[in-house]
Design brief:
The complex is a heterodimer of chains A (113) and B (402). By secondary structure, chain A is mostly helical. Chain A is rod-shaped. Chain B has 402 residues and is an all-alpha fold. Helix content of chain B is 72%, strand content 1%. Chain B has two domains: 74 residues; 297 residues, no CATH class. A two-stranded antiparallel sheet of chain B has the order 1-2. Chain B contains 21 helices and two strands. Classes of the chains: A mainly alpha (113), B mainly alpha (402). Chains A and B meet through helix 1 and helix 3 of A and helix 8, helix 9, helix 10, helix 15 and helix 16 of B.
């Protein structure tokens, strides 16, 4: 009897530690993912903000021939900056299916559950 | 022609011991009653209809086999030598299903895979500490029943297997009893499924008994705004948690793999696999699980004196689990400054999604506008995970002692 109680307590204690460890793991996973997403989003925003500010400056200084060059620069900027561009693309690519699954799958399943 | 030889189902009743003959008749009636209760939806129809039919048929369809032996041509769960098994596989129609899916736990894993596809871990990821905390309180049944069962004369393996009925997960009970209590896995699994079907009927009364009415209708107020969980986050959780748990408990790795794989498939939106797991494998496995459980209910198997002990222990485990969960709910209610509905605690018992639905229904009876289902689902999914953890612990610790 004593041994069975000690086994039960051992199982419960270890179970509790592992369960809370998992909860902690979940928090850390979410924190890391979200921090990564935020940094990526900030980079993209910086890239876009930088691009539009430069566009304005170019517009103010512009000589009669300027619009042409400013235009071409903005275009090249939009496609250009490899980091921002690729992050934005990656996010868009990631975002689309996620939203799709969320909208269709999850709510439907919730109801079914 | 001899009438006993012509109608062998009836004839064998006179050739067997009276206790077994009476047991057979009682089990035929019980099987038909289970079908009736399943059809009426009093008990879970998905399990009870095939199980009831199987139970009635196996006890009715007894015949004289070779060498004056009495038996059935459904299956032989006790056959162990390879030659005998190969021979029986060609005669008994359910033997291949039993030997290749049931006795190795595959059927439990398939059900678990399907459960993964219908579970939304989003609620667990939103409230991980609260959900895990409640689920661990709801494991009171799986823990406290173990020494009680041992004190009632069961060895450690049998005691652990019946204690896990408190985890309220049929596939888990089947898996653990196959690992720990090979001699008793049929009655333990039957007791588990019978009681799990009764949860729906019994838990509302337990909730009313334990939680005062004014607490049952409380709306949950989270202390801060909680962002929605994206599918990619859920998939990463599935990958990390599944691998980590397999690393910790290799003995329960098939269960972890099945559940988290099923969930990752759901979240990744691979609809063809989702349909396969949810519509084909989950329901197919549940159907055969019910049928095999019924066919295993032969009078000679169930006339085991331990069955009464198992019946008592099963109900103790499930009642303690619900009470433990509600105590957990009450602790969270206190810790959060009375902003938590303690009824959610009952969902920590797992039995997904039944207990979560019961919690929502009972809360709504008191307060029509209250919505606690998402919190209850979080606790319920955590219940599955914590039961799997305890299963792994019991198999590792008790298994090494046997």
């Amino acid at each position: 009897m004593d041994e069975s109680i000690s086994i039960a307590l051992q199982v419960y204690f270890l179970g509790f530690v592992i369960a809370l460890g998992m909860a902690f793991l979940i928090k850390i996973i979410l924190l890391i993912i979200r921090r990564g997403n935020k940094q990526a989003a900030a980079k993209t925003q910086d890239g876009q903000a930088g691009g539009s500010a430069e566009k304005k400056d170019e517009g103010k200084k512009a000589s009669p021939e300027a619009p042409k060059s400013a235009d071409s620069e903005t275009k090249s900027e939009g496609k250009g900056e490899p980091d921002a561009g690729s992050t934005a693309k990656a996010e868009a690519a990631e975002g689309k299916p996620e939203a799709g699954t969320n909208g269709n799958g999850e709510s439907g399943k919730e109801g079914a559950a | 022609m001899n009438m006993v030889q012509l109608f062998q189902g009836i004839g064998t009743l006179f050739a067997q011991e009276p206790a077994i003959a009476i047991g057979r008749i009682a089990l035929i009636v019980a099987g038909l009653f289970l079908v009736y209760l399943g059809v009426k939806k009093t008990l879970e129809p998905l399990i009870m209809i095939p199980m009831g039919f199987g139970m009635a048929a196996v006890n009715a369809g007894v015949l004289f086999l070779d060498a004056g032996k009495i038996g059935t041509i459904f299956m032989d769960p006790l056959v162990s030598d390879t030659n005998g098994l190969m021979e029986i596989m060609q005669i008994d129609f359910l033997q291949p299903v039993y030997s290749l899916t049931f006795s190795n736990g595959l059927i439990a894993c398939l059900v678990f895979m399907g459960l993964g596809t219908i579970s939304d871990v989003g609620n667990l990821l939103k409230f991980p500490f609260t959900s895990m905390f409640i689920a661990m309180f709801a494991e009171l049944g799986s823990i406290a029943t173990f020494p009680i069962a041992h004190a009632m004369g069961l060895d450690y393996g049998d005691a652990a297997a019946i204690a896990l009925v408190g985890g309220a997960d049929g596939p888990m009970v089947l898996y653990s009893s196959l690992m720990l209590a090979k001699d008793l896995f049929v009655p333990i699994t039957i007791v588990a499924y019978l009681y799990l079907s009764l949860c729906y009927a019994g838990y509302p009364y337990l909730i009313k008994l334990v939680i005062p009415k004014h607490l049952r209708g409380i709306a949950v107020k989270p202390s801060r705004r909680i962002d929605d969980i994206k599918p990619m986050e859920k998939i990463i959780f599935d990958m990390v948690a599944g691998t980590a748990l397999c690393l910790l408990f290799p003995v329960a790795a098939p269960l972890f793999l099945s559940f988290f794989l099923g969930n990752a498939i759901k979240e990744s939106g691979v609809f063809k696999y989702m349909n396969l797991l949810e519509d084909v494998l989950l329901y197919g496995a549940t159907f055969f699980l019910g049928l095999l459980l019924g066919v295993l209910c032969e009078a000679s198997t169930l006339l085991n004196p331990k069955i009464l002990v198992l019946l008592v222990l099963g109900i103790i485990a499930l009642a303690l689990a619900a009470v433990g969960g509600m105590i957990g709910g009450y602790v969270v209610y206190r810790f959060t400054g009375k902003k938590f509905n303690p009824v959610i605690g009952v969902a920590g018992v797992s039995c997904i999604p039944t207990t979560a639905k019961i919690a929502q229904k009972e809360a709504q009876k008191v307060n029509k506008r209250v919505m606690i289902l998402q919190y209850a689902m979080g606790a319920s999914i955590c219940g599955v995970i914590t039961t799997a953890i305890l299963t792994g612990l019991y198999i590792t610790i008790v298994g090494s002692m046997q």
